[in-house]
TrEMBL record:
One of its GO terms (molecular function) is cyclic-guanylate-specific phosphodiesterase activity. PROSITE patterns: EAL (PS50883). The lineage of its organism: Bacteria, Pseudomonadati, Pseudomonadota, Alphaproteobacteria, Rhodobacterales. This is EAL domain-containing protein. Residues 27-277 form the EAL domain. Pfam families: EAL. InterPro entries: Cyclic-di-GMP_PDE-like, EAL_dom, EAL_sf.
Length: 279
């Protein structure tokens, strides 16, 4: 786009087209919204159950999913902002707050097992490591009940750093989950060297699997890889009974999704009320 057209479109010089400008403007607005939420401590966790396949009346563990409140009081899920802040300082702070809240929850509920999301970019972030150390030192039982979920895409950015980090923390009893498996480009050369205990199969392969031959083949292959490396499998985004039945039949270990419960900022173990607030 030439400068004359950019001027009439109100697009700053240096941005090539309206779409690039719109994406950049949207990301800046999102980052500002998250920064404002952090500044005013409007950050919380929503908890979603992960249930054993075939024994879905009980919960294996909960995943703590970060949420923020916007200036109107709406609860905003991570998928609406995490992409914009992932590589920024704000992204590291959000990881710190998520871990801090997760550790506090584990300390308050001694029978709870909880997974918390993190980016591999936070491994070298001093505040994140200090938060983890304080939580582990304050309550020795926390480590054995904490699962750290690292996305496949971020793990592959610094695989050697991730393997060292996991080896160190495994000694404290912490478990690790490889999140969104299948969505990225895992090098199987690294997969055998990682210390992942849990492999979470990305929801794009799970939704509608009972009637999708391609997803059936792909999910079975991913589950076979997990078993080969002695990893526990979790299917994400389970939303229908027929999908749950199929996944159970092929030997998936655990199921997670709206069919078993939406992420809730008021889980049943925090409130006696039967109706849960979802976020």
């Amino acid at each position: 786009m030439d400068q004359r057209k950019a001027k009439w479109a109100d697009i700053p010089a240096g941005l090539q087209d309206p779409l690039s400008y719109a994406i950049s403007a949207r990301d800046q607005s999102t980052i500002a919204m998250v920064e404002e939420a952090v500044r005013h401590k409007q950050v919380m966790l929503a908890f979603q159950p992960v249930v054993p396949a075939g024994q879905t009346e009980r919960v294996a563990f909960y995943e703590g999913l970060i949420r923020i409140l916007d200036d109107t009081g709406r609860i905003i899920p991570a998928k609406e902002f995490i992409g914009a802040i992932e590589t920024t300082e704000t992204g590291r702070i959000i990881d710190c707050l998520s871990l801090e809240k997760g550790l506090r929850t584990l300390s308050m509920h001694s029978s709870l097992r909880l997974s918390i999301n993190m980016s591999a970019r936070s491994i070298g972030y001093g505040r994140w490591m200090r938060t983890l150390k304080r939580g582990l030192d304050a309550d020795p039982t926390v480590g054995e009940r904490l699962i750290l979920e690292i996305t496949e895409s971020s793990a592959m950015l610094v695989p050697d750093l991730v393997t060292g980090f996991m080896a160190d923390l495994s000694a404290r009893g912490i478990s690790f989950a490889l999140d969104d498996f299948g969505a990225g480009f895992t090098s199987f050369r690294y997969l055998k060297d990682f210390y992942f205990d849990i492999l979470k199969i990305d929801g794009q392969f799970i939704r509608g699997i009972a009637n999708d031959a391609n997803n059936q083949v792909l999910t079975t292959a991913l589950a076979t890889i997990a078993r080969q490396f002695d990893m526990f499998t979790v299917a994400e985004s389970v939303e229908r009974a027929d999908d749950a039945a199929y996944l159970t039949a092929i030997g998936i270990d655990c199921l997670q999704g709206y069919y078993y419960g939406a992420p809730s900022v008021k889980p049943i173990w925090l409130t006696p009320e039967p109706r849960l607030a979802s976020a």
